[in-house]
Structures are given as C-alpha cells and as structure tokens.
What we know:
By secondary structure, this protein is mostly helical. The protein has 17 helices and five strands.
Amino acid sequence: MNGGDERAGDQRPGEQDARAGARGGGAARDDVHGPGGNDGSHSQGRGGAARDEVHGPGRNDGSHSQGSGDARGGSGGRGAETASADSLWRHGGFLKLWAGETASQLGTQLTQLAVPVLAITLLAANEFQVGVLNAAETAAFLVVGLPAGAWVDRWLKRRVMIAADVVRAVALAMIPLLWALGMLQMWHVYVIAAVVGSATVFFDVSYQSYIPLLVRSSQVSDANGHLETTAQVARIGGPALGGALLTVVSAPLLLLGDALSYVVSFLFLARIRDEERQPDRGSRMSLRHDIAEGLAFVWNHRLIRVITATTGTTNFFGTIAMTLLSLLVLRELRLGAAGLGVIMSAGAVGGLLGALATPWLGRRLGEGTIIPLAAVVSGLAMLLWPVAALVPAFALPLLIAAEFVFSFTVLVYNIAQVSFRQRVCPPRLLGRMNASIRFVVWGVMPIGSLISGVLGSTIGVVPTLWIGAVGSVLGCAFTVFSPLLGMRRLPGRAAEDDGAAPVESAGAAPVESAGAAPVESAGSAPVENAGAAPVENAGAAPVENDGRTDGNGP
Length: 554
C-alpha cells in the first residue's frame, strides 16, 4: 500500500502505482502501478498503473532545478555532503537516500501482492469493493494534491518525507494488528489506504523536488537512473518473494514488511545532512496565488501540457483496466497468488530493462520521439489483458508478455518525460509543478477506480478491461499529434533565471550535454513515477510514478 513510483511518477496505471497504497511508486504514469489489490500498490497506487513519475512508487510523476556549475538548483549551495567529483558513490547524502528507497521499494512490492490477496481472498471483496479500495488509495491526489505542492514549496522537503514515512509505517502496521485481534474489516482497509495515500502525496511531491536540491544538476540524471534501477530490481524479486511467503504466512503479516521498510527509509533520511533552507516567509504570497502559479506553468508550456493530457487520459482508462486485473488473475483465470507474483516479476524485469535502455533509445530515436512511441506501445500491450481471458490455456504466458512490454515502455515514458519536466521547471516552482501535474494525472485515478468497480459489477471483468485498454491507446493521441514526435532533443530552461519563461519551441536550445542520458530523472516515485513511482524515478516511487504507471503488473 505504498504510494510510490509513478511511473510513476505521472505514470500510467500499471506499475506501480494502481495497487494498494499509494506510494510514490506505482505503475501509473509519472509514477506506475500494476494490478493490485490496490500501485498501483500504491494505490496508485496499487490497483492501477499510473504514468508519471517513475514511482515512485511508486512509489507512481519530478522536477529538478538546473544550477550552473556546481551550484545546486534549489538549495543555493553545494550542501554538506556534496561529492568532490561527479561520482554519486562519493555523495553521502545520496547514498543514504538510495539505501532508504531500496528498502522501501522491496517492502512496497510485498504490499502490492499482499493487498489484493488480502482483500479478495481473506475479506471476499467483490468488484465494487476493489474499486472503492483503489479509489481510497488515490483519492488524496485529487483532494489535497494542489495545496500539497504549495505547502511543500514552503517547507523543508526532507522533513516532509520523514514525517510521511512515520505516518505510513504506523498506518500499515494497523492491518496485521487488527487481523490478529480478529477485528479486520474492509472499511478498515479503506481508511488505512486513504491515510497512506495522503502521506504519499506529500512524500512524492517532496521527493521529486528534493533530488535536484541534494545533488548537482549534472548528477540528477544519474541519481534518478540509480534509484529507478534499484526499484526495478526490487520489483523483480519482490513479487516472487511475496508469492512464496504467502504460501507460509497470511497476507496481513506480509504487510509488516512494508511497514518496516518505511522505518528503514525514515532512519536513513534522518541521517542526511543538506543545506536546504526554508523560503523566507515574508516573500510568500497567498496559497491560492501559489497554486495558480504552478497550474499556469504547466498549462502555458506546450510540451508539458500535451504530456500531461496523455498521462492523465491513459491513467484514467488504465486504472479502469488495472483495478480489475487482479480479479482476472485470481478469480477469473484462477492462476493464484503464485501466478500473480510471476506476472508482476516479469513486469519488473521489463521495467528494469526499460530504465537501462532509455538513454540509448533517446539517442537513437530522439528524446522527444520516445515519449509518444512508448505511450502507444504500452497501450497496445494492455490489449493483451482481455485477450488472455479469451484463450485461458495461454493466459499466463500472454499476461507475462503483456506485463513485460507494458512495464518496459512505461518506464521509458516516465523517465523521459519526468526528466524533461525537472530540467525545464524553475527551482522555485518544482513542488507546485509536480503537484499540479499529479493532481491531474493521479486525480483521475480514484474516479477511474470507482467507474471500474461499477462496470465490473454490471457488465463483467473482461468487458471492463477492453474499455480500459482501448481508451489507453486512444489517449496517446495528445503526444502523437504534437511536436514531440520526431524531436531529437528536448529543450531545457530558457535561462538560469528562475522566473524565465519556459522553453516551448522544438527548436529551443538542446540539453547541454549530447552525451548525457536523455532523461534527468526517472521518476519518483509508482510513476506521477511514478511515478511512480509508476515512477515520478528513474527512481523510486510511484510510481511522479506523475503519469503513467510504471508497470508492475498486477
């Protein structure tokens, strides 16, 4: 029930991030999620994959400041733990963040599997109840997403992440406690999912905005790449490990692993030393003004606007499909928890390879081109979900292949678009930009979850999957019919001045280093990273996972 990843980020429903809890990680775009009881497990979280932030956990859709020289974009200084060289292996602050996120991502994978099993097998949840659960996990992005961005820009981001970890750890620990006392009911799971989702909103927005402040501008791409690669490794082993553990322990006990992972993340975050300074209170405008400024930046930047439109549309329809994917696997096809774990692991392998391949694909196909291309291919992969129901004898291999391709392309989508957003956004608007995008691309997910529950109860699971998959393919039109298709280099910020107008022209100055990875951040995240999530990530969580789910499958 973690929220992270994005794809992400702004992820698409998928990886991460349509599952159960909303960590910033799941398979939604910009964050990403997978079928889950839920990503997005996160709920983004888990039951639906979301695009964006990769994420992450996404622990589910990021931004970063672009400093010049060695200066860090938002902190205005090098920080107490700045690396003496570009190697992140010498950056103590990043290593602590990386270690905490690694533990958190592994715990998230256990939850993404345990929550749907808990709801469907132990509590006998029906289609509508699964939809309500997924909605509870992502509702916070719609309810408090916009003000959260404005608040985070006023607060110290690391402290916000620490507080969010504490809240999520305590909330998740309540499930096994209530179960042990014989008191656990579905409404308890709804409330806990909502609490975890609310904490995840603040964690994800802070996380995506903190990386550019912790490391130098030249290190942001590598930092996101390290975080997302680790997240995908966790997604490979986590579901398989969870499936094996569920044969000997009950689902509620498995959730203790995720609660402990948040404790580990808290301990590492508490040891980081940085030079982030709280903005001067005297210069603050009204909350309404701050929110409007973030929304205006997203709307006025043409490329970010079309990316947000595709991410939001595909997350909406992706959530409709992802919400019932676990029911398809567990109840309709009777593949069991082990089968669900295998499918999720295949998706994790695809996500890992997608994270590793994104820089190469950006150089070969174009930094802009891979965004609409990845969106279309991920949508086509979703069509195999309902197809699997038509040929039960081949359902497992079809679902494995679909989840592999889906996760691969969602990670590519999330890493590329989240990194672009981070690069182009002025540092002072990072939190509000991320929150504004997540409000749209993850805010549609609870609506999609409820619609999925209603449709599943009236017309059935498989017809609902067809509606979600076809809608996801059509939602790619915003980026397909935009300047992104055929664009070799994505633009950066017009000037170092924070107040500079964003670069909207395809002909704008290219990214500063031709050899640099095309994306600066993988997410966050499951998806926005995630994103992540599914995603904002390459990094964790679920998926800013702010867009499409990262693709962690069911």
